[in-house]
Amino acid sequence: MDYVTYIRSKVGHDKIFLNCVAAAIMNDKGEVLLQRRADRNTWGFPGGIMELGESFVSALKREVMEETGLNVEVKNLIGVYSDYSDKYPNGDEAQPILLFFLCKSINGSLSAENDETLELKYFNEDTKPFLVNKQHNDMFNDLFNPNNEIIIS
């Protein structure tokens, strides 16, 4: 049983903290890979929730592989995003604590053939689609407006 299923069996839909990771995977044109998510049919960064026993980095690598088919190398931390609330389509509520990493694809084949991904596409700052929530919007804006500091919100 995965962590979210386990904890939800105890607390139902009540608001909980979730430890999350997301990847900014850039191509040679300076565009970032986004995922059109199956749960909400909107765009966001590849990533997800840590399982018990995982580090942030191992969770990130697992989630990116599951959602995109790519193996990534983590380059650096872009920011920590914690001042957000989210309500999922099934009624679950959470305060996601998300670490956002710049990553480089090292191998694999880009693939949207999984239960969580409808489409994968690279976007630049000017072609940003509607994103899943304020947290992902803030992350996108921070990615394209770097100030050489780790963002903490």
Judging from the principal axes of the Cα atoms, what is the shape? globular
Summarize the amount of helix as a percent range: 10-25%
Question: How many DSSP-defined strands?
Answer: 9
Identify low-pLDDT runs. none
Main sheet overview: 6 strands, mixed
Distance between the termini: 31 Å
Order of helices and strands: HEEEEHEEEEHE
Based on helices, strands and strand pairing, what is the structural class?
Answer: alpha+beta
The radius of gyration over CA amounts to 15 Å
How much of the residues is beta strand, in percent? 35-45%
In DSSP terms, counting alpha (H) and pi (I) runs of 4 or more, how many helices? 3
Residue-averaged pLDDT: 95
